[in-house]
Design goal:
Elements: H1 21-26, E1 35-36, E2 40-41, H2 46-49, H3 51-58, H4 70-88, E3 107-109, H5 118-134, H6 168-182, H7 186-202, H8 212-227, H9 234-240, H10 246-259, H11 268-284, E4 291-293, H12 296-340
Antiparallel strand pairs: 1-2, 3-4
Helix pairs in contact: 4-5, 5-6, 5-7, 5-11, 6-8, 7-8, 7-11, 8-10
GO molecular function, one term: protein kinase binding
Keywords: Cyclin
Region (Disordered): 54-76
Length: 341
Amino acid sequence: MGGSVSCCISPRESPKIHRREVELEECPITTTEEVSEDTGTYLQHISDRELPDELAQETNPSDHPRASTLFLNKSQTDVREKRKSNYLNHMSPGLLTKKYSSCSTIFLDDSTVSQPNLKSTIKCVALAMYYHIKNRDSNRSLDIFDEKKHPLTREKVPDDYAVVDPEHKLIYRFIRTLFSSAQLTAECAIVTLVYLERLLTYAEMDICPCNWKRIVLGAILLASKVWDDQAVWNVDYCQILKDITVEDMNEMERHFLELLQFNINVPASVYAKYYFDLRSLADDNNLSFPLEPLSNKRAQKLEAISRLCEDKYKDLSKSSMRRSASVDNMVGIKNSNAVLS
């Protein structure tokens, strides 16, 4: 699924985690002045004192696999309104156009967690960003991502650039252009979304009309270098976006990394969670993945892949059994030597 890069630790204090008053009230720190009649002076263990930080990390979806993704939460309001409107109007969109399997025909899409469909994945990622912008809490931003202060083109930035929300099609075209020109993979699109939500969480900012292009560009730039085997250089993006300079790209990349606290690691569990949440988002918005009937050739291919995976797991289990047997033999030899001595 891609290379895993261990995260670095920034020398600065992390801005992503702040102790909240509610968390401190739930986990009070006992001082030396609090004395118990039975045990005397009680000092709280350091792990108990750091519990609020651990709770804050578990609520970050880009780091913890059990936390719900931000884009799926932001889309629920619109999804509920659509369902309510369809119910009142007695409409069932998508039911007539969606293909269903039967006894004679099985429909499958060609998208898997290890090899997602590129076009469908980019559409879902663009839709997730659309909901981020539309249902944002505020307009917190940084100058490095402001499109007026750092324009991507020589064309004049409209006066209402910070007010008008971009449509889903505009976001999709922008991402598709970058992915098509740089020949990036669908896995890179998922990692781009992970980095984007990690940036919003760590830097405590919002993606809004004035900064969405540069934030998306920075996330794609970083994801392509970390995830793809053949990374795209900054100068290559300057050839795609003709009016941007290498110095601007370097500065934006440096700020992006600093805001992420150089945490560019994406665990497999987090990647899988984002993939399946994107599929849920597609189902909620009638963005179905392309379905094709299961042919004999494709069935044989799936059977071969399944058999290959099964043989691989058998080899792994055999090797683990050999290692455990060798360890048992070593323990037995040591015990016998101890008895003889």
